[in-house]
Amino acid sequence: MHRQMTNRIIIGLIFILCFDNCSNNNNNSLNIERRQDFGFTISNSVRHGRPNSFFSISTTITNDTIIPFHLKISFSKEYVHNNKKFRVILLPESMTVEEQHSDDFFRSKVQKFLETQIENPITIDKIIKPKENYIINIAFINESNSNVIPGQLALISKLHKFNFTSIPDSLIIQDRPTKDSLRISLGLNFSILTDSVYGFKLIPCGTIYYPN
């Protein structure tokens, strides 16, 4: 009887340790939202940047197939949300997530880039090779002292929906895939850092398609 009870305790402890380890792994994975469907993967980092002016994300698009596909992304020079202007630009691919968290890196690289290349670039036109991981660094820049702050940023599609805290299906439904391509949008959720009246904005910005 004593041996049976001891065995049960040991089995119970093993179960608890395994469960705890899985829970920790799940918590660690919350920093990046990953979606994989239809031959490619979209992985978005958490939003990071400087309060009231600059925010950015690093998105990795992976070609999981054995054939290349075409990625096209284009942003407008300016956007308006709740009568507040903001811009979306593309930062150099070499600016990693870890580096963008660094104050020294921001002052020496990001700030210099914003000062010298604020007008560009805003477009991507690239063939993604099989098994290639392509990094896209997207920056959100608003007006000085603006209270329109995106609590969440992500590249999303109908088939790679990012798990926003409040994303209206009526908006994401417009990203239905066509016969030849899949539309991609930049999602911005303004509601978790400000009043919910700011809501959610979806910016159509590109497509992924397989060349004939």
Number of domains: 2
Query: Which percent range describes the beta-strand content?
Result: 35-45%
Q: What is the N-to-C order of secondary-structure elements (H for helix, E for strand)? A: HEEEEEEEHHEEEHEE
Distance between the termini: 71 Å
User: What is the count of β-strands?
Assistant: 12
Task: Report Rg.
Answer: 21 Å
Give the number of helices.
4
* Relative helix content: 10-25%
Q: Which stretches of 5+ consecutive residues score pLDDT under 50? A: 1-36
How is the biggest beta sheet arranged? 7 strands, antiparallel
- Shape designation: globular
How is the topology of this model organized?
Blueprint: H1 2-28, E1 33-37, E2 40-44, E3 48-50, E4 54-63, E5 69-74, E6 79-81, E7 84-91, H2 97-100, H3 103-116, E8 123-128, E9 133-142, E10 152-156, H4 169-172, E11 181-189, E12 200-209
Antiparallel strand pairs: 1-2, 2-4, 3-4, 4-9, 5-8, 5-12, 6-7, 7-9, 10-11, 11-12
Question: Could you please describe the fold and organization of this structure?
Answer:
The chain is α+β, with helices and mostly antiparallel strands and 212 residues long. The chain has 2 domains: 1-31; 32-209, no CATH class. The chain has helices at 2-28, 97-100, 103-116, 169-172, and strands at 33-37, 40-44, 48-50, 54-63, 69-74, 79-81, 84-91, 123-128, 133-142, 152-156, 181-189, 200-209. The strands form 2 sheets. Strands 1, 2, 3, 4, 6, 7 and 9 form a 7-stranded antiparallel β-sheet that branches. Strands 8-5-12-11-10 form a 5-stranded antiparallel β-sheet, with no helix packed on it. A hairpin with a 2-residue loop joins strand 6 and strand 7.
